[in-house]
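so my prof wants the structure for this chain in the tokens format not the other one, which i didnt know existed until like an hour ago. anyway here's the sequence
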Amino acid sequence: MYKIILDSCGELTEEMKADGRFVNVPLTLEIDGEHIIDDETFDQADFIKKVKESPNAPKSACPSPHAYMAEMECDADNIYVVTLSGELSGSYNSACLGKDLYEEEDTSKNIHVFNSKSASIGETLIAMKIAECEEAGMSFEQVIEAVDAYIENQHTFFVLETLETFRKSGRLSGLKAAIAETLNIKVVMGSTDTGYIQQLAKGRGMAQTVDKMTKCVMDVTTGCEDKILAISHCNCPERALSLKKKMESLANFKDIFIVDMRGVSTMYANDGGVILVV
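here's what i got, hopefully its the right format
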């Protein structure tokens, strides 16, 4: 038996929720002193409203090691943990500490923590890859080797409707944010192979910039027929569906699915943001 634990930045599909072997450990969001648990009670519309009305940037706190340990208490022999990029959050380190603490008391299980070097549906796809390897009858060590290789070849892209969260957090000057808003400039961002974020392209308006993102995707993607492409969106299902159709017209992927963002992804992407991972 196996179990796959994701922090709440990794959105679960409805099929994964029904499966029972996939679980989320929630992060905590904070806006103006209010703490919001990123679990099934998360209200995306209310959170977006609070962020928009606040002069302050929202923050997040990673799960405690004990929260991860609680999910390791199960009947599974092989336990895999997938966290958002260790370069962007303390979630990975917390999960590693949880594993170490658990193994001080119980060494009967095989436990491994994966640094996704991604976020959101990047984590989802990694969890799906783990399950695929387990179902193929691979050993615990073989699963780790195959999934590590998958992570190294995974690509994450995103386009944001607004840069307000970056401005409020001090990661972008108010002047640059104002100029970008005035000129309607949107930016295509992507993850590096070390888990950091870089600018890949920019365009005038969301439609043009999303088109540029699709070009960035196809520039680095081969063997599409063997790959699953995932899209997550923050309160813009029509944009996500349009992006899905665009990718279907460009290549014959094994599958393409769409999910709505959970709390952590919503905090970073903000209203109208889309993430694409392949």
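also thought this was worth mentioning. Confidence is low (pLDDT under 50) at residues 172-180.
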